Amino acid sequence: MDCICQNSSNPAFKIILCFLANGNDSKKFKRDRPPCSPSRVLHLRKIPCDVTEAEIISLGLPFGKVTNLLMLKGKSQAFLEMASEEAAVTMVNYYTPITPHLRSQPVYIQYSNHRELKTDNLPNQARAQAALQAVSAVQSGSLALSGGPSNEGTVLPGQSPVLRIIIENLFYPVTLEVLHQIFSKFGTVLKIITFTKNNQFQALLQYADPVNAHYAKMALDGQNIYNACCTLRIDFSKLTSLNVKYNNDKSRDFTRLDLPTGDGQPSLEPPMAAAFGAPGIISSPYAGAAGFAPAIGFPQATGLSVPAVPGALGPLTITSSAVTGRMAIPGASGIPGNSVLLVTNLNPDLITPHGLFILFGVYGDVHRVKIMFNKKENALVQMADANQAQLAMNHLSGQRLYGKVLRATLSKHQAVQLPREGQEDQGLTKDFSNSPLHRFKKPGSKNFQNIFPPSATLHLSNIPPSVTVDDLKNLFIEAGCSVKAFKFFQKDRKMALIQLGSVEEAIQALIELHNHDLGENHHLRVSFSKSTI
Protein backbone atom coordinates (compact mmCIF):
# COMPACT_ATOMS: atom_id res chain seq x y z
CA MET A 1 0.00 0.00 0.00
CA ASP A 2 1.38 3.37 -1.04
CA CYS A 3 1.85 5.59 2.00
CA ILE A 4 4.34 7.72 3.88
CA CYS A 5 5.77 6.19 7.04
CA GLN A 6 5.87 8.86 9.70
CA ASN A 7 8.39 7.08 11.93
CA SER A 8 11.31 7.28 9.53
CA SER A 9 14.02 9.71 10.56
CA ASN A 10 15.36 9.96 7.00
CA PRO A 11 12.76 11.28 4.53
CA ALA A 12 14.70 9.85 1.63
CA PHE A 13 13.90 6.30 2.80
CA LYS A 14 10.20 6.79 3.57
CA ILE A 15 8.99 5.17 0.38
CA ILE A 16 11.14 2.03 0.72
CA LEU A 17 10.44 1.60 4.44
CA CYS A 18 6.74 1.92 3.79
CA PHE A 19 6.79 -0.98 1.36
CA LEU A 20 8.86 -3.13 3.69
CA ALA A 21 6.45 -2.48 6.54
CA ASN A 22 3.44 -3.50 4.49
CA GLY A 23 4.94 -6.82 3.39
CA ASN A 24 2.95 -8.92 0.96
CA ASP A 25 0.04 -6.50 0.86
CA SER A 26 2.09 -4.29 -1.41
CA LYS A 27 2.38 -7.09 -3.95
CA LYS A 28 -1.34 -7.18 -4.59
CA PHE A 29 -3.01 -4.86 -7.04
CA LYS A 30 -6.25 -3.86 -5.36
CA ARG A 31 -8.71 -2.70 -7.96
CA ASP A 32 -11.25 -1.83 -5.26
CA ARG A 33 -8.90 0.31 -3.15
CA PRO A 34 -10.17 3.86 -2.64
CA PRO A 35 -8.63 6.19 -5.22
CA CYS A 36 -6.00 8.69 -4.10
CA SER A 37 -6.44 12.36 -4.83
CA PRO A 38 -4.57 13.54 -7.93
CA SER A 39 -0.81 13.92 -7.53
CA ARG A 40 2.03 14.50 -9.96
CA VAL A 41 3.66 11.35 -8.49
CA LEU A 42 2.28 8.14 -9.99
CA HIS A 43 2.52 4.63 -8.55
CA LEU A 44 3.15 1.80 -11.05
CA ARG A 45 2.50 -1.84 -10.12
CA LYS A 46 3.29 -5.18 -11.74
CA ILE A 47 6.26 -3.89 -13.73
CA PRO A 48 8.35 -6.67 -15.35
CA CYS A 49 11.51 -7.58 -13.45
CA ASP A 50 13.69 -6.93 -16.51
CA VAL A 51 12.14 -3.62 -17.49
CA THR A 52 14.51 -0.68 -18.01
CA GLU A 53 14.33 2.82 -16.62
CA ALA A 54 13.88 4.19 -20.14
CA GLU A 55 10.84 1.98 -20.69
CA ILE A 56 9.17 3.26 -17.50
CA ILE A 57 9.95 6.87 -18.46
CA SER A 58 8.53 6.29 -21.96
CA LEU A 59 5.08 5.69 -20.43
CA GLY A 60 5.00 9.28 -19.24
CA LEU A 61 6.74 11.10 -22.08
CA PRO A 62 3.71 11.57 -24.36
CA PHE A 63 1.92 13.40 -21.55
CA GLY A 64 4.67 15.81 -20.46
CA LYS A 65 8.07 16.07 -18.84
CA VAL A 66 9.15 13.29 -16.44
CA THR A 67 11.08 14.82 -13.55
CA ASN A 68 11.96 11.85 -11.33
CA LEU A 69 11.84 8.07 -11.11
CA LEU A 70 12.15 5.50 -8.34
CA MET A 71 12.39 1.81 -9.31
CA LEU A 72 11.53 -0.91 -6.78
CA LYS A 73 12.22 -3.94 -8.95
CA GLY A 74 12.16 -6.32 -5.99
CA LYS A 75 8.56 -5.27 -5.42
CA SER A 76 7.76 -5.05 -9.17
CA GLN A 77 6.80 -1.44 -8.61
CA ALA A 78 7.95 2.05 -9.49
CA PHE A 79 7.17 5.71 -8.84
CA LEU A 80 7.11 8.21 -11.68
CA GLU A 81 7.07 11.95 -11.02
CA MET A 82 5.65 14.24 -13.70
CA ALA A 83 6.47 17.93 -14.00
CA SER A 84 2.86 18.93 -13.33
CA GLU A 85 -0.27 17.51 -11.78
CA GLU A 86 -2.11 18.22 -15.05
CA ALA A 87 0.24 15.90 -16.94
CA ALA A 88 -0.24 13.17 -14.33
CA VAL A 89 -4.04 13.52 -14.44
CA THR A 90 -4.04 13.27 -18.23
CA MET A 91 -1.83 10.19 -18.07
CA VAL A 92 -4.03 8.43 -15.49
CA ASN A 93 -7.20 9.35 -17.38
CA TYR A 94 -5.79 7.81 -20.53
CA TYR A 95 -4.36 4.64 -19.02
CA THR A 96 -7.36 3.86 -16.77
CA PRO A 97 -9.51 2.37 -19.56
CA ILE A 98 -6.50 1.28 -21.65
CA THR A 99 -4.02 -0.70 -19.58
CA PRO A 100 -0.45 -0.09 -20.79
CA HIS A 101 1.88 -3.02 -21.40
CA LEU A 102 5.62 -3.29 -20.90
CA ARG A 103 7.32 -6.35 -22.38
CA SER A 104 3.88 -7.88 -23.03
CA GLN A 105 2.93 -7.55 -19.36
CA PRO A 106 0.10 -5.28 -18.12
CA VAL A 107 1.20 -2.43 -15.86
CA TYR A 108 -1.21 -0.68 -13.48
CA ILE A 109 -0.99 3.04 -12.78
CA GLN A 110 -2.60 5.09 -10.02
CA TYR A 111 -1.97 8.28 -8.08
CA SER A 112 0.54 8.10 -5.25
CA ASN A 113 -0.01 9.59 -1.80
CA HIS A 114 3.37 11.28 -2.24
CA ARG A 115 3.36 14.83 -3.60
CA GLU A 116 6.98 14.63 -4.77
CA LEU A 117 9.82 12.13 -4.95
CA LYS A 118 12.89 12.82 -2.85
CA THR A 119 15.49 10.35 -4.04
CA ASP A 120 18.74 12.31 -3.61
CA ASN A 121 20.04 10.09 -0.81
CA LEU A 122 18.65 6.77 -1.96
CA PRO A 123 21.01 3.99 -3.10
CA ASN A 124 21.03 2.53 -6.60
CA GLN A 125 19.59 5.65 -8.20
CA ALA A 126 22.41 6.15 -10.69
CA ARG A 127 20.67 4.33 -13.57
CA ALA A 128 17.39 6.17 -13.03
CA GLN A 129 19.11 9.55 -12.91
CA ALA A 130 21.16 8.71 -16.01
CA ALA A 131 17.98 7.81 -17.90
CA LEU A 132 16.30 11.04 -16.78
CA GLN A 133 19.35 13.07 -17.78
CA ALA A 134 19.39 11.41 -21.20
CA VAL A 135 15.76 12.32 -21.79
CA SER A 136 16.40 15.85 -20.49
CA ALA A 137 19.35 16.19 -22.87
CA VAL A 138 17.18 15.14 -25.79
CA GLN A 139 14.50 17.65 -24.76
CA SER A 140 16.84 20.55 -24.01
CA GLY A 141 18.82 19.87 -27.17
CA SER A 142 15.70 20.58 -29.20
CA LEU A 143 14.63 23.73 -27.41
CA ALA A 144 16.96 26.33 -28.87
CA LEU A 145 15.43 29.81 -28.90
CA SER A 146 17.73 31.10 -31.62
CA GLY A 147 15.39 31.26 -34.56
CA GLY A 148 11.83 31.32 -35.77
CA PRO A 149 9.06 28.88 -35.07
CA SER A 150 10.31 26.53 -37.76
CA ASN A 151 13.59 26.29 -35.87
CA GLU A 152 12.18 25.50 -32.44
CA GLY A 153 13.57 22.00 -32.97
CA THR A 154 17.23 21.28 -33.56
CA VAL A 155 18.39 18.04 -35.19
CA LEU A 156 20.50 16.13 -32.70
CA PRO A 157 23.81 14.56 -33.75
CA GLY A 158 23.16 11.15 -35.28
CA GLN A 159 19.41 11.54 -35.09
CA SER A 160 17.02 12.30 -37.92
CA PRO A 161 13.28 13.06 -37.90
CA VAL A 162 12.99 10.21 -40.43
CA LEU A 163 12.60 6.61 -39.23
CA ARG A 164 13.21 3.50 -41.29
CA ILE A 165 10.67 0.83 -40.35
CA ILE A 166 10.86 -2.87 -41.26
CA ILE A 167 7.90 -5.17 -40.55
CA GLU A 168 9.06 -8.70 -39.71
CA ASN A 169 6.84 -11.79 -39.56
CA LEU A 170 4.27 -10.10 -41.76
CA PHE A 171 1.30 -12.40 -41.23
CA TYR A 172 -1.43 -9.77 -41.70
CA PRO A 173 -1.43 -6.73 -44.04
CA VAL A 174 0.01 -3.50 -42.66
CA THR A 175 -1.05 -0.37 -44.50
CA LEU A 176 0.18 3.22 -44.60
CA GLU A 177 -2.90 4.18 -42.56
CA VAL A 178 -2.06 1.62 -39.87
CA LEU A 179 1.47 3.04 -39.56
CA HIS A 180 0.10 6.59 -39.36
CA GLN A 181 -2.30 5.66 -36.57
CA ILE A 182 0.44 3.98 -34.53
CA PHE A 183 3.23 6.53 -34.99
CA SER A 184 1.06 9.65 -34.70
CA LYS A 185 0.70 8.80 -31.01
CA PHE A 186 4.22 10.20 -30.56
CA GLY A 187 4.01 13.39 -32.57
CA THR A 188 3.04 14.95 -35.87
CA VAL A 189 3.74 12.63 -38.79
CA LEU A 190 4.51 14.69 -41.90
CA LYS A 191 5.21 12.06 -44.58
CA ILE A 192 5.21 8.27 -45.10
CA ILE A 193 6.55 6.16 -47.97
CA THR A 194 6.01 2.38 -48.03
CA PHE A 195 7.88 -0.07 -50.26
CA THR A 196 9.21 -3.61 -50.51
CA LYS A 197 12.93 -4.36 -50.40
CA ASN A 198 14.57 -7.78 -50.08
CA ASN A 199 11.06 -9.27 -49.84
CA GLN A 200 10.39 -7.23 -46.70
CA PHE A 201 7.67 -4.62 -46.26
CA GLN A 202 9.37 -1.37 -45.20
CA ALA A 203 8.50 2.26 -44.66
CA LEU A 204 10.15 5.64 -44.29
CA LEU A 205 8.29 7.91 -41.88
CA GLN A 206 9.11 11.56 -41.25
CA TYR A 207 8.17 13.37 -38.05
CA ALA A 208 8.04 17.12 -37.59
CA ASP A 209 10.84 16.83 -35.03
CA PRO A 210 13.66 14.35 -34.31
CA VAL A 211 12.60 14.25 -30.65
CA ASN A 212 9.31 12.64 -31.71
CA ALA A 213 11.27 10.10 -33.74
CA HIS A 214 13.44 9.36 -30.69
CA TYR A 215 10.43 8.70 -28.44
CA ALA A 216 8.70 6.56 -31.06
CA LYS A 217 11.78 4.41 -31.63
CA MET A 218 12.32 4.00 -27.89
CA ALA A 219 8.75 2.83 -27.29
CA LEU A 220 7.89 0.93 -30.47
CA ASP A 221 11.07 -0.88 -31.58
CA GLY A 222 10.49 -4.62 -31.15
CA GLN A 223 6.74 -4.31 -30.50
CA ASN A 224 4.20 -6.47 -32.34
CA ILE A 225 1.41 -4.67 -34.18
CA TYR A 226 -0.75 -7.79 -33.91
CA ASN A 227 -0.44 -10.66 -31.47
CA ALA A 228 2.76 -12.63 -32.12
CA CYS A 229 3.32 -11.15 -35.57
CA CYS A 230 4.05 -8.00 -37.60
CA THR A 231 7.05 -6.99 -35.48
CA LEU A 232 8.35 -3.43 -35.80
CA ARG A 233 12.11 -3.00 -36.33
CA ILE A 234 12.97 0.68 -36.24
CA ASP A 235 16.17 2.63 -36.95
CA PHE A 236 16.99 6.25 -37.65
CA SER A 237 17.25 6.98 -41.35
CA LYS A 238 20.24 8.63 -43.00
CA LEU A 239 17.75 10.93 -44.70
CA THR A 240 16.60 14.12 -43.01
CA SER A 241 13.59 14.73 -45.25
CA LEU A 242 11.33 12.77 -47.59
CA ASN A 243 10.18 13.97 -50.99
CA VAL A 244 6.72 12.58 -51.76
CA LYS A 245 5.31 13.03 -55.27
CA TYR A 246 1.95 11.32 -54.89
CA ASN A 247 -0.72 10.88 -52.22
CA ASN A 248 -2.06 7.35 -52.46
CA ASP A 249 -2.01 4.06 -50.54
CA LYS A 250 1.80 3.72 -50.91
CA SER A 251 2.97 7.24 -50.06
CA ARG A 252 1.49 10.27 -48.34
CA ASP A 253 2.52 13.86 -47.64
CA PHE A 254 0.17 15.06 -44.89
CA THR A 255 1.31 18.66 -45.45
CA ARG A 256 0.40 18.61 -49.18
CA LEU A 257 -3.21 17.61 -49.68
CA ASP A 258 -3.01 18.98 -53.23
CA LEU A 259 -0.66 16.26 -54.54
CA PRO A 260 -1.98 13.98 -57.30
CA THR A 261 -2.63 10.29 -56.73
CA GLY A 262 -0.43 9.34 -59.70
CA ASP A 263 -1.29 7.04 -62.59
CA GLY A 264 1.29 4.44 -61.61
CA GLN A 265 3.40 3.60 -58.59
CA PRO A 266 5.23 6.58 -57.04
CA SER A 267 8.97 6.60 -57.50
CA LEU A 268 11.64 7.34 -54.96
CA GLU A 269 13.72 10.44 -55.48
CA PRO A 270 17.31 9.54 -56.59
CA PRO A 271 18.88 10.53 -53.19
CA MET A 272 16.46 8.17 -51.42
CA ALA A 273 17.15 5.34 -53.81
CA ALA A 274 20.88 5.85 -53.33
CA ALA A 275 20.58 5.97 -49.54
CA PHE A 276 18.64 2.73 -49.32
CA GLY A 277 19.62 0.88 -52.45
CA ALA A 278 15.94 0.74 -53.28
CA PRO A 279 14.62 0.21 -56.78
CA GLY A 280 13.26 3.19 -58.66
CA ILE A 281 9.69 1.94 -58.35
CA ILE A 282 8.01 1.25 -55.00
CA SER A 283 5.99 -1.90 -55.43
CA SER A 284 2.94 -2.79 -53.40
CA PRO A 285 3.60 -5.60 -50.93
CA TYR A 286 0.04 -6.76 -51.40
CA ALA A 287 -0.44 -6.50 -55.15
CA GLY A 288 -3.32 -8.74 -56.10
CA ALA A 289 -4.49 -9.24 -52.51
CA ALA A 290 -8.19 -9.13 -53.26
CA GLY A 291 -10.63 -7.63 -50.83
CA PHE A 292 -8.26 -5.57 -48.74
CA ALA A 293 -10.04 -2.36 -47.83
CA PRO A 294 -8.31 0.76 -46.52
CA ALA A 295 -10.78 1.33 -43.67
CA ILE A 296 -8.83 0.77 -40.47
CA GLY A 297 -9.19 0.81 -36.72
CA PHE A 298 -7.90 -0.74 -33.55
CA PRO A 299 -9.98 -2.69 -31.04
CA GLN A 300 -8.93 -2.43 -27.43
CA ALA A 301 -7.49 -5.85 -26.71
CA THR A 302 -4.14 -7.47 -26.11
CA GLY A 303 -2.09 -6.43 -29.09
CA LEU A 304 0.33 -3.52 -29.29
CA SER A 305 -0.09 -1.15 -26.37
CA VAL A 306 2.06 1.94 -26.46
CA PRO A 307 2.16 5.26 -24.65
CA ALA A 308 -0.15 7.63 -26.46
CA VAL A 309 -1.35 11.15 -26.25
CA PRO A 310 -4.83 11.59 -24.81
CA GLY A 311 -7.57 10.67 -27.21
CA ALA A 312 -5.46 8.38 -29.33
CA LEU A 313 -6.82 4.96 -30.22
CA GLY A 314 -6.13 2.08 -27.89
CA PRO A 315 -4.04 -1.09 -28.18
CA LEU A 316 -3.97 -2.92 -31.46
CA THR A 317 -5.03 -6.47 -32.09
CA ILE A 318 -6.13 -8.57 -35.04
CA THR A 319 -9.82 -9.31 -35.46
CA SER A 320 -11.59 -11.88 -37.59
CA SER A 321 -12.74 -9.08 -39.89
CA ALA A 322 -9.15 -8.03 -40.45
CA VAL A 323 -8.25 -11.47 -41.75
CA THR A 324 -10.57 -10.85 -44.67
CA GLY A 325 -9.12 -7.43 -45.16
CA ARG A 326 -11.49 -5.12 -43.29
CA MET A 327 -10.90 -3.42 -39.96
CA ALA A 328 -13.20 -1.05 -38.11
CA ILE A 329 -13.09 1.10 -35.01
CA PRO A 330 -15.18 -0.70 -32.37
CA GLY A 331 -16.61 1.47 -29.65
CA ALA A 332 -16.38 4.51 -31.92
CA SER A 333 -19.59 5.45 -33.66
CA GLY A 334 -17.83 7.62 -36.20
CA ILE A 335 -16.93 6.83 -39.76
CA PRO A 336 -13.24 6.15 -40.56
CA GLY A 337 -11.99 8.99 -42.70
CA ASN A 338 -14.61 11.36 -41.28
CA SER A 339 -13.59 14.97 -40.71
CA VAL A 340 -16.30 15.80 -38.13
CA LEU A 341 -15.60 15.50 -34.41
CA LEU A 342 -18.09 15.18 -31.58
CA VAL A 343 -16.79 17.23 -28.65
CA THR A 344 -18.43 16.56 -25.28
CA ASN A 345 -18.24 17.61 -21.62
CA LEU A 346 -17.83 21.29 -22.48
CA ASN A 347 -18.65 24.12 -20.08
CA PRO A 348 -21.95 25.41 -21.55
CA ASP A 349 -21.65 28.77 -19.77
CA LEU A 350 -18.26 29.67 -21.28
CA ILE A 351 -17.78 27.81 -24.53
CA THR A 352 -18.50 29.52 -27.86
CA PRO A 353 -18.22 28.47 -31.53
CA HIS A 354 -15.39 30.98 -31.95
CA GLY A 355 -13.52 29.51 -28.96
CA LEU A 356 -13.73 25.99 -30.42
CA PHE A 357 -12.67 27.35 -33.81
CA ILE A 358 -9.53 28.92 -32.33
CA LEU A 359 -8.60 25.90 -30.17
CA PHE A 360 -9.17 23.16 -32.76
CA GLY A 361 -7.63 25.45 -35.37
CA VAL A 362 -4.24 24.81 -33.75
CA TYR A 363 -4.35 21.31 -35.27
CA GLY A 364 -6.12 21.94 -38.58
CA ASP A 365 -8.40 24.29 -40.48
CA VAL A 366 -11.85 24.34 -38.88
CA HIS A 367 -14.65 24.81 -41.42
CA ARG A 368 -17.77 24.74 -39.23
CA VAL A 369 -18.71 24.54 -35.55
CA LYS A 370 -22.12 23.70 -34.09
CA ILE A 371 -22.92 23.80 -30.37
CA MET A 372 -25.97 21.61 -29.70
CA PHE A 373 -29.08 23.75 -29.14
CA ASN A 374 -30.63 21.47 -26.48
CA LYS A 375 -27.38 20.13 -25.02
CA LYS A 376 -24.86 22.94 -25.01
CA GLU A 377 -22.10 20.88 -23.38
CA ASN A 378 -21.78 19.04 -26.71
CA ALA A 379 -20.59 20.38 -30.06
CA LEU A 380 -19.68 19.27 -33.59
CA VAL A 381 -16.42 20.52 -35.11
CA GLN A 382 -15.84 20.00 -38.83
CA MET A 383 -12.16 19.99 -39.87
CA ALA A 384 -10.75 20.38 -43.39
CA ASP A 385 -9.97 16.65 -43.65
CA ALA A 386 -9.89 13.40 -41.70
CA ASN A 387 -6.16 13.64 -40.88
CA GLN A 388 -6.62 17.02 -39.21
CA ALA A 389 -9.64 15.69 -37.31
CA GLN A 390 -7.55 12.77 -36.01
CA LEU A 391 -4.71 15.11 -35.06
CA ALA A 392 -7.04 17.44 -33.14
CA MET A 393 -8.70 14.50 -31.39
CA ASN A 394 -5.34 13.02 -30.39
CA HIS A 395 -4.05 16.27 -28.89
CA LEU A 396 -7.17 17.78 -27.30
CA SER A 397 -9.26 14.91 -25.93
CA GLY A 398 -8.58 14.66 -22.20
CA GLN A 399 -7.46 18.28 -21.78
CA ARG A 400 -9.12 20.55 -19.23
CA LEU A 401 -11.03 23.56 -20.54
CA TYR A 402 -13.00 25.95 -18.32
CA GLY A 403 -12.90 23.49 -15.42
CA LYS A 404 -14.08 20.41 -17.35
CA VAL A 405 -12.22 17.58 -19.12
CA LEU A 406 -12.94 17.86 -22.84
CA ARG A 407 -13.65 14.66 -24.79
CA ALA A 408 -13.41 14.34 -28.57
CA THR A 409 -14.42 11.39 -30.76
CA LEU A 410 -15.28 10.86 -34.42
CA SER A 411 -18.86 11.86 -35.15
CA LYS A 412 -21.53 9.92 -37.04
CA HIS A 413 -22.12 13.07 -39.08
CA GLN A 414 -20.06 13.64 -42.20
CA ALA A 415 -20.71 17.39 -42.29
CA VAL A 416 -22.05 20.13 -40.03
CA GLN A 417 -25.29 21.47 -41.46
CA LEU A 418 -25.95 25.20 -41.31
CA PRO A 419 -29.34 26.26 -39.92
CA ARG A 420 -32.12 26.89 -42.42
CA GLU A 421 -33.16 30.46 -43.04
CA GLY A 422 -35.42 31.60 -40.22
CA GLN A 423 -34.49 28.64 -37.98
CA GLU A 424 -33.75 29.61 -34.37
CA ASP A 425 -30.08 28.92 -33.61
CA GLN A 426 -28.95 31.56 -31.09
CA GLY A 427 -25.68 31.90 -32.99
CA LEU A 428 -24.60 28.39 -31.99
CA THR A 429 -23.67 27.33 -35.55
CA LYS A 430 -20.88 29.16 -37.36
CA ASP A 431 -19.25 28.74 -40.78
CA PHE A 432 -15.50 29.45 -40.73
CA SER A 433 -14.74 28.03 -44.20
CA ASN A 434 -13.35 31.32 -45.49
CA SER A 435 -11.71 32.53 -42.28
CA PRO A 436 -8.38 34.33 -42.71
CA LEU A 437 -7.22 32.71 -39.45
CA HIS A 438 -6.72 29.24 -40.96
CA ARG A 439 -3.16 28.14 -40.15
CA PHE A 440 -2.80 25.35 -42.74
CA LYS A 441 -4.50 26.67 -45.87
CA LYS A 442 -1.20 27.12 -47.72
CA PRO A 443 0.09 23.73 -49.04
CA GLY A 444 3.38 22.77 -47.41
CA SER A 445 3.01 25.48 -44.75
CA LYS A 446 5.72 25.46 -42.06
CA ASN A 447 2.91 25.43 -39.50
CA PHE A 448 2.64 21.69 -40.17
CA GLN A 449 6.09 21.29 -38.60
CA ASN A 450 5.17 23.18 -35.45
CA ILE A 451 2.20 21.26 -34.11
CA PHE A 452 2.64 20.38 -30.45
CA PRO A 453 0.43 19.08 -27.64
CA PRO A 454 -1.13 21.64 -25.29
CA SER A 455 1.45 22.90 -22.81
CA ALA A 456 1.79 25.59 -20.18
CA THR A 457 4.29 27.39 -22.43
CA LEU A 458 2.94 29.37 -25.38
CA HIS A 459 4.79 30.56 -28.47
CA LEU A 460 3.95 34.17 -29.37
CA SER A 461 4.70 35.74 -32.75
CA ASN A 462 3.96 38.80 -34.89
CA ILE A 463 4.88 41.10 -31.98
CA PRO A 464 5.45 44.74 -33.05
CA PRO A 465 8.70 46.47 -31.94
CA SER A 466 6.92 48.91 -29.62
CA VAL A 467 5.38 46.16 -27.42
CA THR A 468 7.37 45.49 -24.24
CA VAL A 469 7.72 42.52 -21.92
CA ASP A 470 5.42 44.20 -19.39
CA ASP A 471 2.82 44.91 -22.08
CA LEU A 472 2.60 41.21 -22.97
CA LYS A 473 2.70 40.02 -19.36
CA ASN A 474 -0.11 42.42 -18.42
CA LEU A 475 -2.15 41.26 -21.40
CA PHE A 476 -2.08 37.68 -20.12
CA ILE A 477 -2.60 38.70 -16.48
CA GLU A 478 -5.71 40.67 -17.49
CA ALA A 479 -6.94 37.51 -19.22
CA GLY A 480 -6.81 35.75 -15.83
CA CYS A 481 -3.47 33.99 -16.24
CA SER A 482 -0.56 33.67 -13.82
CA VAL A 483 2.66 34.41 -15.71
CA LYS A 484 5.57 32.28 -14.48
CA ALA A 485 8.23 33.27 -17.03
CA PHE A 486 8.71 35.22 -20.25
CA LYS A 487 11.47 35.35 -22.84
CA PHE A 488 11.90 37.07 -26.19
CA PHE A 489 13.72 35.12 -28.91
CA GLN A 490 17.31 36.34 -29.02
CA LYS A 491 17.55 36.67 -32.80
CA ASP A 492 13.99 37.70 -33.55
CA ARG A 493 12.13 39.97 -31.15
CA LYS A 494 8.92 39.44 -33.08
CA MET A 495 8.61 36.16 -31.19
CA ALA A 496 8.60 35.13 -27.54
CA LEU A 497 7.78 32.35 -25.12
CA ILE A 498 5.47 32.86 -22.15
CA GLN A 499 5.05 30.23 -19.43
CA LEU A 500 1.74 30.22 -17.56
CA GLY A 501 0.58 28.54 -14.36
CA SER A 502 -1.00 25.47 -15.96
CA VAL A 503 -1.89 23.83 -19.25
CA GLU A 504 -5.54 24.76 -18.73
CA GLU A 505 -4.57 28.43 -18.32
CA ALA A 506 -2.54 28.25 -21.53
CA ILE A 507 -5.44 26.69 -23.48
CA GLN A 508 -7.83 29.39 -22.30
CA ALA A 509 -5.28 32.15 -23.00
CA LEU A 510 -4.75 30.85 -26.53
CA ILE A 511 -8.51 30.93 -27.16
CA GLU A 512 -8.86 34.47 -25.84
CA LEU A 513 -5.68 36.10 -27.14
CA HIS A 514 -4.88 34.49 -30.50
CA ASN A 515 -5.35 37.23 -33.13
CA HIS A 516 -5.47 39.93 -30.41
CA ASP A 517 -4.84 43.38 -31.92
CA LEU A 518 -1.50 44.70 -30.64
CA GLY A 519 -1.63 47.84 -32.74
CA GLU A 520 0.52 48.92 -35.68
CA ASN A 521 -1.45 46.47 -37.86
CA HIS A 522 -0.05 43.52 -35.86
CA HIS A 523 -2.31 40.75 -34.56
CA LEU A 524 -0.79 38.39 -31.98
CA ARG A 525 -0.26 34.80 -33.09
CA VAL A 526 -0.42 32.22 -30.29
CA SER A 527 0.41 28.50 -30.42
CA PHE A 528 1.56 25.79 -28.04
CA SER A 529 5.31 25.32 -27.62
CA LYS A 530 7.35 22.24 -26.80
CA SER A 531 9.89 24.51 -25.10
CA THR A 532 10.11 25.58 -21.49
CA ILE A 533 11.78 28.69 -20.12
UniProtKB/TrEMBL annotation:
<feature type="domain" description="RRM">
    <location>
        <begin position="339"/>
        <end position="413"/>
    </location>
</feature>
<dbReference type="GO" id="GO:0033119">
    <property type="term" value="P:negative regulation of RNA splicing"/>
</dbReference>
<keyword id="KW-0678">Repressor</keyword>
<dbReference type="InterPro" id="IPR006536">
    <property type="entry name" value="HnRNP-L/PTB"/>
</dbReference>
<protein>
    <recommendedName>
        <fullName>Polypyrimidine tract-binding protein 3</fullName>
    </recommendedName>
</protein>
<dbReference type="GO" id="GO:0005634">
    <property type="term" value="C:nucleus"/>
</dbReference>
<keyword id="KW-0677">Repeat</keyword>
<keyword id="KW-0507">mRNA processing</keyword>
<dbReference type="InterPro" id="IPR000504">
    <property type="entry name" value="RRM_dom"/>
</dbReference>
<feature type="domain" description="RRM">
    <location>
        <begin position="456"/>
        <end position="531"/>
    </location>
</feature>
<feature type="region of interest" description="Disordered">
    <location>
        <begin position="416"/>
        <end position="436"/>
    </location>
</feature>
<dbReference type="Pfam" id="PF11835">
    <property type="entry name" value="RRM_8"/>
</dbReference>
<dbReference type="GO" id="GO:0043249">
    <property type="term" value="P:erythrocyte maturation"/>
</dbReference>
<dbReference type="InterPro" id="IPR012677">
    <property type="entry name" value="Nucleotide-bd_a/b_plait_sf"/>
</dbReference>
<dbReference type="InterPro" id="IPR034326">
    <property type="entry name" value="ROD1_RRM1"/>
</dbReference>
<dbReference type="InterPro" id="IPR035979">
    <property type="entry name" value="RBD_domain_sf"/>
</dbReference>
<dbReference type="Pfam" id="PF22976">
    <property type="entry name" value="RRM_10"/>
</dbReference>
<dbReference type="InterPro" id="IPR055204">
    <property type="entry name" value="HNRNPL_RRM"/>
</dbReference>
<keyword id="KW-0221">Differentiation</keyword>
<dbReference type="InterPro" id="IPR021790">
    <property type="entry name" value="PTBP1-like_RRM2"/>
</dbReference>
<dbReference type="Pfam" id="PF13893">
    <property type="entry name" value="RRM_5"/>
</dbReference>
<dbReference type="GO" id="GO:0003723">
    <property type="term" value="F:RNA binding"/>
</dbReference>
<keyword id="KW-1017">Isopeptide bond</keyword>
<dbReference type="InterPro" id="IPR033110">
    <property type="entry name" value="PTBP3_RRM4"/>
</dbReference>
<feature type="domain" description="RRM">
    <location>
        <begin position="40"/>
        <end position="124"/>
    </location>
</feature>
<feature type="domain" description="RRM">
    <location>
        <begin position="163"/>
        <end position="239"/>
    </location>
</feature>
<keyword id="KW-0265">Erythrocyte maturation</keyword>
<dbReference type="GO" id="GO:0045595">
    <property type="term" value="P:regulation of cell differentiation"/>
</dbReference>
<comment type="subunit">
    <text>Interacts with THBS4 (via the acidic amphipathic C-terminus).</text>
</comment>
<keyword id="KW-0007">Acetylation</keyword>
<keyword id="KW-0832">Ubl conjugation</keyword>
<keyword id="KW-0597">Phosphoprotein</keyword>
<keyword id="KW-0694">RNA-binding</keyword>
<dbReference type="GO" id="GO:0008380">
    <property type="term" value="P:RNA splicing"/>
</dbReference>
<keyword id="KW-0508">mRNA splicing</keyword>
<comment type="function">
    <text>RNA-binding protein that mediates pre-mRNA alternative splicing regulation. Plays a role in the regulation of cell proliferation, differentiation and migration. Positive regulator of EPO-dependent erythropoiesis. Participates in cell differentiation regulation by repressing tissue-specific exons. Promotes Fas exon 6 skipping. Binds RNA, preferentially to both poly(G) and poly(U).</text>
</comment>
<dbReference type="GO" id="GO:0006397">
    <property type="term" value="P:mRNA processing"/>
</dbReference>
